[in-house]
Specification:
Helix content is 55%, strand content 0%. By secondary structure, the chain is mainly alpha-helical. The longest helix is centred in the middle third of the chain and has 30 residues, at 11-40.
Length: 65
């Protein structure tokens, strides 16, 4: 709805629309990364431990703290 009225948006709504577009782009990029990892069908061994298995999945999983 915001995009269809883009020319008449308030500055607040225009910023919100811009943020939503950035969020969508970020989600789409993550989706492509996730698809790549899923397509590789990575085999892992639970006996290797979390740290070693975590390395196999790159940026699609949260960093270990």
């Amino acid at each position: 709805m915001l995009a269809s009225n883009e020319a008449s948006l308030s500055s607040r709504d225009a910023k919100r629309l811009d943020q939503l577009r950035k969020d969508i782009a970020e989600c789409e990029a993550y989706d492509l990364e996730l698809k790549d990892v899923a397509d590789r069908q990575i085999a892992f061994d639970l006996d290797d431990g979390v740290t070693e298995n975590h390395k196999l999945f790159g940026n699609v999983v949260a960093k270990i703290k």
